[in-house]
Amino acid sequence: MRLDCLDVMPVASSCADVEPIAGADLDRLFRSHLNRGASDHMRSVDLRVLLARLPDETVASVGEMLSIKPTRLKSFLRGEAYLNKTQAGRVELLLSVVRVVSEVLESAAITPWLDANLPALDSSARNLLKRGRGADLSEHVGGYLNTNYS
Amino acid sequence: MDCWRSGLDLSVFRLVPQSKSYPPDQPYASVGGRFCDKGIATLYVTEDPEVAVAEYLRWNPELIDFQPMLRLRLFRFSVSTTEPEFDLTAEDCGTQFNLSSEWPDPEAVDPEVRYVDTRRLARWVFFDEGGAGIKFKSAAHRSSSAANHVLFTDRWASTSVPERMPLPMIDPTEIVLFSTN
């Protein structure tokens, strides 16, 4: 397969049917392909780290918190699907929250913590994530690392 | 009215998250604390290990039920002051700054409002009076009368190697929560 067929070749057609791309456009296309591959690899690593830090959660329950279909998460982990930018952002946000919580709680307590009510936010962490309030949650747990007095 | 104490030798406690590698007796220029000023490196410590935990849980009430699974480290070490410390727990010593010797008063939701007087006091103690720190009453524990201290920059010295201590379990009813929580 020629390089200029990448990303533009329909499955059932041959490369000969595709308008050739040359010069700067080809360079740009190639770079974008490489970049996407690298970032997807990192997202896959992030997701695996996230799942490892949540031993009592499943792909299904994590997918529900992130509003990502579990089948898509599974396909992504197998390298058979992409996450879009919004979905990848949710993975990274939850990972950053779990990283902070892991600093102050044993890993076995993280799932109960996800289900516990957070009085300042009047909801559980799991519900906040489902409702797209991950940024609020992230800011809130940042306080877990402070030990100011009174 | 004598509000200053000289030549103090104290045994104090400080909580540190388990992942943090900085020394527990190292002051830092924090933002957002009760006696905070970005230009002053401070260290908050308490004389009672239970108060140290109560202070933390007061700020993070959803973690009260997770006490057995907290990954916090408690350290004990000794400090001595090289300059006088201002004693806000002594009667009437905070009057000129609208501060009672009892905490918390007031408890506005916005820290910029809640801490305006204590920050003004801290700047006066540090810049105008050359003080080593401020002794103040804990607002976090109902039964303990042990004091907290905020210590400034290098006007005190750590006189022992920090020693790791077991984390005490606190009766949740002893923790005074913020009314806004």
Overview of the structural elements:
The complex is a heterodimer of chains A (about 150) and B (about 180). Chain A has about 150 residues and is an all-alpha fold. Chain A has one domain. Chain A has seven helices and two strands. Chain A has helices at about 25-55, 60-65, 70-75, 85-105, 110-115, 125-130, 135-140, and strands spanning about 115-120, 125. In chain A, a hairpin with a 4-residue loop joins strand 1 and strand 2. The longest helix of chain A is centred in the N-terminal third of the chain and has 31 residues, at about 25-55. Chain A is elongated and about 65 Å long. The termini of chain A are far apart. Helix content of chain B is about 15%, strand content about 25%. Chain B contains three helices and nine strands; from the N terminus they run βββαββααββββ. Chain B has one domain (about 5-165). Chain B has a five-stranded mixed sheet with strand order 1-5-6-7-3. The interface between A and B is medium-sized, with 22 and 41 residues.
Summarize the structure.
The complex is a heterodimer of chains A (150) and B (181). By secondary structure, chain A is mainly alpha-helical.
